[in-house]
Amino acid sequence: LSGYLESCSNEGEEVQLATRNRDFKCFNCICQNGFVRCSNNCPPIDDCYMVDRSNGSCCPKCKGCMFRGIPYESGAEWNDPEDPCKTYKCMATVVTETIQKCYSQCDDNQLQAPRPGECCPTCQGCTINGQTVGEGQEVVPSIDDRCLVCQCGNGRLTCSKKTCPILLCPKSKQKQHPDECCPRCQEKREMLSLPGKCVFYKQMHYEKTQFMPDRCTNCTCLNGTSVCQRATCPILECAPEFQEDDGCCPRCAVAEVRSECSVNGVTYRNNETWNMGPCRSCRCNGGTIRCSEMRCPAAKCRANEELKLPHGECCHRCVESAGTCTVFGDPHFRTFDGKFFSFQGSCKYLLAADCYANTFHIRLTNEGRGTRHASWAKTITLKLHNLRVNLGQRLRVKVNGTRVLLPYVGLAGGQNVTIERMADGGAVMLRSELGLMLEWDGAGFLQVTVPAQYKQRLCGLCGNFNGSARDDLTSRDGRSHSDDEVWHFANSWKVGGPKSCSRQRENIAVLPTCDKRMSSFYCHPLDVAQLFGECSERLNPQNYIAACRMDVCECPSGSCHCDSFAAYAHECQRLGAVLPDWRAATNCTAGWRRNNATLSSFLGNPYYGDSSFTRFRRRGRKQHRQQHRLHKQQQQHLQEQELLRKQDARRRPKGSHNQVVDKEFSRKHPSQLHPRAPDRTPPPLH
Prior knowledge:
About 15% of the residues lie in helices and about 30% in strands. The chain is α+β, with helices and mostly antiparallel strands and about 675 residues long. The strands form 13 sheets. Strands 10, 11, 12, 15, 16, 17, 30, 31 and 32 form a nine-stranded antiparallel sheet that branches. An eight-stranded antiparallel sheet has the order 37-36-35-48-47-46-45-44, covered by helices on one side. Strands 38, 39, 40, 41, 42, 43, 49 and 50 form an eight-stranded antiparallel sheet that branches. Helix 2 (about 515-525) crosses helix 3 and helix 3 (about 540-550) runs antiparallel to helix 4. Mean pLDDT is about 85; it is low at about 620-625 and about 655-685.
């Protein structure tokens, strides 16, 4: 199979696939980092030994069970309506029947009898070994017996043990994970349906036939389903080293009972508990250490979420990702929700602000740098409570109007704010306890990061951070603008008076144009995947290529293309790509260290594009020089003629000059010197 990554612009939104292929209906596609990313919506069947594709759906399913005339999906579990302690579980045409065993670790005065329809008693409060169990969370009371599970529900803790379901695959195809109770099948097979027959361990059994897969399991084939009974092993209070085999289940051997336990030189008395981290707690039980462990559910995060382990918690969970807004080059903007746009205004603008609680605002000042249409970020001003931070050119930093040396630590609204140079010295990083971060390279690249708590609270050029890029071009008056109305949107966020603009008049209708061959030459490195650690599969480079092509058209420094390279590389690193030294490979130094460059700085570099356009430029310059020389010769000839005319006029007697002029004029304009016809009387008016 072969294919390509489809580009998209509606960042974060669902993409509908225009196809009639039935199998594509099982995929959910969204626009992520400029590419259409699709994920399978089908339920996992990794540990299913018998796959069923006969249901007409695009999703294969694990073959279910038929029990007492009722069909059950594979993985379904239910209790006997007459005996709540008797449980059944369907797993790939096999129903396992067992009697669950109850367990309690709380005192008798905290123990409550089973409610109607329940098998086991419950303990008041969800604590075990002094550790709190969250609502709906599961915990293993003893890591020596992971089939014993406790669950918190409605503020009560219920503990029970069930036998593992009988698997259809042979023992050689089963694998036991060390932190799980039961083994899993390691293969998937597709088998034809055999009505009235059961397939088990590569053998076929007829209807109502009884068989024993092992000495502890009895099975009967009923309606194509193997119904098997297996006893649940007892809950043992002794450590594994004091257990011995007793046929189908282990049992505790006679061992010395002690009244204390010793761990890492620390002695604990009987029934004393202690924590061993957020996931595990232990109890001394008759000289034996019994440790419980939290069970973490599998977490699958969405596109706008990331998996994180909160401080002091046991399980990872999906949390909303922080918002990131980027400004680079001849300013190009990528909003918090992923919208790209370009705006070359040369004034001061509100970049981002908390428009609800007014906890902070960030202003961006652009300058034209002597160009007619282009502009670049000049300074960044952050107002955070009582603190006013100005990030200027060449990494100059001012706090409340006074220049400071880095690193700097201050307070804003009672919260710490730090400003320091990054490890490579190419940028400064501002961090606040609020979660706000600013990275500035001292030349034109800025990245603003805000925590998820600011969702739907922001405004400015960086958008509203509501998860949708479609309405990011919303002006100060609440109107939403199209891509063709970027200037109307951006100018609505202008702050400061006319003196804040480096150009008094802005030509909003004209975009800089230049030779496409020249822009292709400078921007070609963005098409070289290995330069940026194969990041082109994570992040679509097309927006950065378009930005680069615009920037090289009116570039006062000769190295404006490097701004797009830096922005693309920075976003790639944020997405987890490991980058080689792309700056050395492309001759692009860090922004504030960058000096004016010439074309010769990049000619001969294998990563840049076709440089044949330079021949036309040289030819054009040669023709220009020839025309300039010819024009200069003509001007010199005219000056010499004018000098001779003046000298000749001084030598002639008075009056002769007019005769010469009259002769010359009559020679050039003979028709204008003919005698004029006499005036005629106009015709009468009737």
